[in-house]
Every structure is written in C-alpha cells, then in structure tokens.
Amino acid sequence: MNVRKKRVGLFVWSALLGTGAALCAAAAEGPPVLFPQPLSARIVRYDVRVALDAEKKTLAGEETVTWKNTTGGEVGDAWFHLYLNAFANDRSVFMRESAGAHRGFKASEDKWGYCRVTSMVFLGPNGAETVLPLEYPGEDRTVARVTLPVPVAPGGEAAFRIAFEEKLPKVFARAGFVGDFVMAGQWFPKLGIYEAGRGWNCHPYHLNSEFYADFGVYDVAVTVPAHYVVGATGVQWGEAQVGKTKTLRFHAEDVHDFAWAASPDFVDVKEDFRGTTIRVLMQPGNRGDIPRYAGAVKAALKGFERYLWKYPYPVITVVDPPRGGLGAGGMEYPTLITSMTHPFIPDGFYLPEMVTLHEFGHQYWYGMSANNEFEEAWLDE
Questions:
Q1: Mind listing the pLDDT tens digit for each residue in 203-212?
Q2: How far apart are CA 6 and CA 20, in angstroms?
Q3: Which of 7, 107, 207, 301 is the most exposed place for a label (fewest CB within 10 A)?
Q4: What's the whole-model pTM score?
C-alpha cells in the first residue's frame, strides 16, 4: 500500500469511527484540538501571520514551515511553490499557456501580481540559523529551490522561517481581488512533496493542472481592516482588534492547503447541520440565494455520508464572489469552496446548486483522497 492510499484509509476509518467530528474546546491561550486522533501523517506544519493592505491590495507575511522526512533517505534541498508569480508578467508558464484567459475571464495586464520571498532562514539545531538564497530553475518563478546547510536524515525535520510580500492580481483565475473583495488562494510560499526515489514533486503553475501537497496542520493569523468579514480554511478561534485593524486566528488539521476570502460586504450566515457548521459568505445583492447554497451543502453532507463516509471537518464555508470577480468562483479549498450565482437566476435553473455540489465533492476528491492534481488532474473531476 502506498503512502497516498494509507492516508485515504486513515480518513475513511477515522470518519466512520466518528473521531473526525470531535471538536475539543479551545484553551484560552491556544487553538482547539480538532482531531485527538490525527487523520493523516501530518508531514508539514505552517504557522503563518499575514496582513492585508486593503488599499494597495498587498499582503505582508511571515511563516514558519516545519517538514518531516518520512522517506528512507537523506534530503539535501527543499522546493517551494510561489504560485502568485504566475501572474507577475505575460512570460510565466501559466500566462503563456492561457494567453491571459481562464474559463472565459481575461487578465488585466495593468494589474499584475507576485510573490516575493524577502528572507528564508533555515532553523537548525541549538538555535543555529542559516540564510538560504533562493534558486529559480527558469524564467518562471512559481517554483524556487534552496540547498540545505545539512541534509535532513530519515525521520528528521527541517524548519524554515520565511518572510514574504505579495501583490494580489486582479482576479481572473482563482486568486486575486476585485474592488474590496479578496480571494487568497495558493498565496503563501508552499512546500512541494518529496517522493522517495523521485525527489521533489514541485511543478510550475500550469493552466490545465492544479495542486498537490502534503497533509499537515495550519495556524494562520490574518490581519484585515476592522470592518472586513473573513472566511478561511479551518476554524476561527481568536479575534483581537487594535485601532482600525483586527487579527483573526484560524486553525486547521489534516488538510493540505489553506485559503481565505475577505470583504467588507459579505452577508455572514451560519447554520449548524448534523454536527457541521455551514457558513455562507454572500454578496448583498445575492442574499436571496443563501438558502440555495445552504440547501446544496446539506444535500451534499447527507449524500456523501450515506454513500461514502461522514464529512469529518467541523465547518464548511461557501464564498460568493462579486460580479466582476467570478474568476474566483467555482473553486475548492479545504473546508472552503467558492460558488457563483446571480439575482436573476430562476428557481428552476440550478447553477448555484450545481456549482456548490461540485465544489463540495472536491472536499473528498482531491481534499481527502489527495491525488496528484499536477500530473493527473482529471482524476478528481
């Protein structure tokens, strides 16, 4: 049995036994324990702080990434995705393959985006720190490599402290902004997957493929203007306001990605259903379709539990992008999906339900099955 199949088995059995639905009360000084019995190998851990400049549409962040070497050999380097560099210019792999269009939405060439790593430090034993220069394998900078000062032994760990600054593009393909709406998907420096006998599986950002990453734990603090509403992967366990900004803290376990959306305009509706909190973040003009989104999620929760296994996470969030930002719609992230609707869609035309059901299905494939969407993107569709 390969590693991927083992992970799927852990999810299935844990969900069937009910451990996946366990949500322990958060301690006052820290995040909750979502799964006392882990559902995955938890190969990586991300501790991230990021601040949104709502006027400039920029992100300033710092993260500590810890990776476990679960293979039988030493590993002497590390490869990272810098996905937002796909939108840095018209020469990236994604832009050349797409010719600046995705699902009918066009790029705005005067509103490029980027991800710049301003510092990467290897955190060695006994407090030793080594600054690592980034190497780029080609003109496309959606992938970067660093050479480690000492190889990571089998069973050992490597830790990195990374500072980064980013500019969000005008959204046309999954991530970016329109007006005051922000969709932060594939936004942070993110490790590839190390495969025994093959090395790092870390492809550039291509048009007709998606994503592949290890399961792990995420603790993310998001700072936004105080009047913004934020939805994110995992559960929110903290909030603190200082002046005109607030910092929200999110925690997720046994997921392989983290995304968040923010807007001052969201209508925020929550409902508990069969042990899961359904959260809908709706555009004000579409508020009449909140029951359609929520109803689709309820049908999905019941159907997938009946025919497969119970959805193990405590929350599922549906984000409704604004008109002009529908390039962010119809996309899946762990415990968070984006859908799409319009105030003039009639009741008998089930586009909102169809998109919501489809994206919820991705919580299982590739959310829990975690197939390699780089190389076999068709499998989960």
A1: 999 999 899 9
A2: 16
A3: 207
A4: 0.92
